[in-house]
Amino acid sequence: MTKTTFKIYLTIFVSAFLFACSKNDDAPAETTETTAKFNVFLVDTNKVKSCNSDGTNIKLITQISQGTSKSTYISDMSANPERTKIAYLVRKGDFPNYSTELRIVDFNGNNDKLLVAINDNAAIPGSVKFASGGLVYYNYSIGSSVKFYSIKDDATVNTVKFSHKFEDISNDGRYLLRFSFSLDASKTPIQVLDLSGDGGAGSNKFSKNLDVQLRSMKISSDGFKVAGIYRDGTTVKLLIADVNTGTIEEKTLASNVTNTFGSLFVSFAPDNKTLICTIGGDASKTYIYSLETGTSTSFSNTNKDIVKVYGF
User: Fold this and answer.
1) Of residues 227, 246, 247, the one with CA closest to residue 287
2) Residue 288 maps to which CATH number?
C-alpha cells in the first residue's frame, strides 16, 4: 500500500468516526421528553376528564349516564401508583332506585368496568384509594354506619376492614387519614392511623385539633405529609402537616376571592411536592401549588360543576 493510499483510507476512517460521534451527540436532541410530572384529571359531576396543567386540551375519559333525574355523581377517584388505572366511586340511578358503584378505568378511557355494586338506596359513596399491589380501598355510609372495604382490582378478595371513615390512605396501605370527632364546630380534629399497629386495628401516628375548619384534606403517597384546605374570610389557605415531627405550616393559596364559593378540594401530585387545589363556586378555579417554592399557577374550570381536580 502506498503512502497516498494509506492517507486516503485514514481520512475516510477518521471522517466516518467523527460522523458517528456527531450522530450520537445529536441523538438526544431528537427525543421528545415530557416536562409534566403528573397528569391532571377532574370530576365533572358524572364524568371523569383529563386536561393539561393549564386547563387546556380537555378530554373525556369516561362517564356514567345521568338518568332522567340527573342525580348521578362521582364522589371520589384515585389512580394506582403505576398511573395506568383510575378507581372511582359513583352514585347512580333514578328516584327511588339508587345504587353505589366502585369502578375502574384505564387512563385512556378503555376498559371501564364494575368492581363492586352496593344496591342500597341509602348508600352514600365516600372516599377511594387505589394503593400498591392492585388493592383498592373504599368506603361508603348507610345512615350513621360506615362501611370500609378493600378489594383487588381484578374484583377478587373483597375484604371488610374497619368502621373508619377515611379521607385518604398512603400508597402502601399503612397510613390512614381521617377526621376525628369534636363537639366544637369551629375546630377540626384530624388523625393519621398506623394500620400496622394494634393488631391491625390501627394505632395513633399523628393527631391535631386544628383551630380552623378544613374543607378537604389528603395524605401524601408516602404517608409523611398531610395537606388541608380552608377558608379564612376571602382568603383560601393551606395547612401542611409533617406526620413524623407534628409540625404544621400555613400557606396562603389565594387572596381576595370574591366569587360565591362553597367547596374546597386539595390533592397531592405523585411527587408529593405539588398540590392541586380547587376552589368551587360560580367561578370554579384550580391552582397548581408548589410546596418547594410557595408559588402557584392557576386556570379557570369550564363550569361550576367541576369541584374536584386531581394530579395523578
Assistant:
1) 227
2) 2.130.10.10
